DNA sequence: GCGCAAGGAGAAGTCAAGGT
DNA sequence: ACCTTGACTTCTCCTTGCGC
């Protein structure tokens, strides 16, 4: 049975892979420079065995300062950067707004959370999904927003997700806050044209277990 | 609940010997 | 001469118990 890959596990695994690769780079650079382990160790103020283990990916915990120093000795610069990958950890407010929607759904509807996009290796996921059978089988993806701070960024993100997973309707679930209501009043034209089903009709259809018939915004 | 100290486990690091 | 590896020591961190 497949186990869920937690962000923290994924991060550790990537760091280990990165370190292993860095060790290989170090070895290549050292050999190319005609330097022995002993010579590099002496200059780097460490032991040759420790360097050897680093080059072979056998050291799991190591300081960035050490890695930088060792690489500098063999003529390598090291760069660490962080970049977006997948969705961040869901916060309490987001769980709450999803729960508020869940309890409004008709009992015949199927509800799921954290639904991955259907692309191998893609770490993004819809916050939720609803599936029904009336009047015929239908499905809707749910994207929950607790704080709309950038309408254009939201439009871009939703656009990319819909491009990669265009099946079914889209429900933009927004937490009922003063800030979000203000943001919805000045929604970008792109988002306005995307959501065609009025909020009340959307919620009424879901409460009755019926196909909402299109994309819509729900404020809860 | 919080801070501190002691003990233990495991990882990190060094030394030295053997192999190529 | 250099690389690799096993044995040993040192260090760090976590857990537990205790007192406030």
Give your account of this protein's structure.
With 220 residues, the chain is an alpha/beta fold. The protein folds into two domains: 7-73, 434 Repressor (Amino-terminal Domain) (Orthogonal Bundle), CATH 1.10.260; 92-219. Helices cover 45% and strands 15% of the residues. The protein contains nine helices and five strands, in the order αααααβββαβαααβ. It has helices at residues 7-32, 37-44, 48-55, 64-73, 92-102, 151-164, 178-185, 189-194, 199-207; strands at residues 110-116, 125-132, 138-145, 169-174, 216-219. It has a five-stranded mixed sheet with strand order 1-2-3-4-5, with helices on both faces. Helix 2 (37-44) packs across helix 4 (64-73). The radius of gyration is 25 Å and the shape is elongated. The chain binds a DNA duplex (20 and 20 nucleotides) through residues 36-38, 46-50, 52-53, 56, 59-62.
List keywords for this structure.
alpha/beta, 434 Repressor (Amino-terminal Domain), 2 domains, five-stranded mixed β-sheet, DNA-binding
